[in-house]
Amino acid sequence: MARLVDQLTEAKIRGPTIGLHPDSHGLYLQIRPGARSWIYRFTLEGRTRDMGLGALADVSLVKVRAKAAAARALVADGIDPIEDAKAKAAVPVAPKANSSLAFEEAAEAYMADRLKRLRSETHRHQWRQPLEDYAYPIIGNMPVAEIETSAVLTVLTPIWESKCETASRLRGRIERILARCTVEGVTHCI
């Protein structure tokens, strides 16, 4: 029996039940409880592997077919697409040399990126307000590279006893902002 090419359609991908649903040439829609994702199944040197190609919600059928075709081309050349993707991801990215970035600037950049995901304006305001009330007056103008644990404690200590939950959330937010700075190459001492 001939193998069907491009079996899945946009309408069909919304209805299948739990399991693997083939499209073509090793591309599958994998449905698990609470998750729908694309995988590319290939065999190289006698070893069968599954390569994740993204969630159904994030990657359209057209795009996933193009991703699978690219992976299929690598397999045809004897290259493991999973290892190839890992190697490309491991290439070091030159860090941004911006050690004079102030905490407030870093926080605003972080919030511009992250807060757009929050649906409610109230939640965005609640995320921002403790930073404006407690962190910015003390460490807002400090360069991120100079922020140490003692500076963060200076922010948190006055509110830790009276507003414990606010202090805990603020600590987490400061930590996230500084962690992002570290990843982007702006080192700090915390």
Structure keywords:
190 residues, alpha+beta, DNA polymerase, domain 1, 2 domains, four-stranded antiparallel sheet, 15% strand, elongated
Helix content: 40-55%
Q: Strand order across the biggest sheet?
A: 1-2-3-4
Succession of helices and strands:
EEEEHHHHHH
Report the radius of gyration as a whole number of Å.
24 Å
Instruction: Compute the number of helices.
Output: 6
- In round numbers, the mean pLDDT is 83
* Main sheet makeup: 4 strands, antiparallel
Poorly predicted residue ranges: 94-98
CATH class descriptor name of the largest domain: Mainly Alpha
Describe the structure.
The protein is α+β, with helices and mostly antiparallel strands. The protein has two domains: 12-90, Integrase, DNA-binding domain (Double Stranded RNA Binding Domain); 103-183, DNA polymerase, domain 1 (Orthogonal Bundle). The protein has six helices and four strands. It has helices at residues 61-76, 81-90, 103-114, 121-139, 149-160, 164-183, and strands spanning 19-22, 27-32, 35-44, 47-55. Helix 3 crosses helix 6 and helix 5 runs antiparallel to helix 6 (164-183). The radius of gyration is 24 Å and the shape is elongated. The N and C termini lie far apart (64 Å). The model is unreliable at 94-98 (pLDDT under 50).
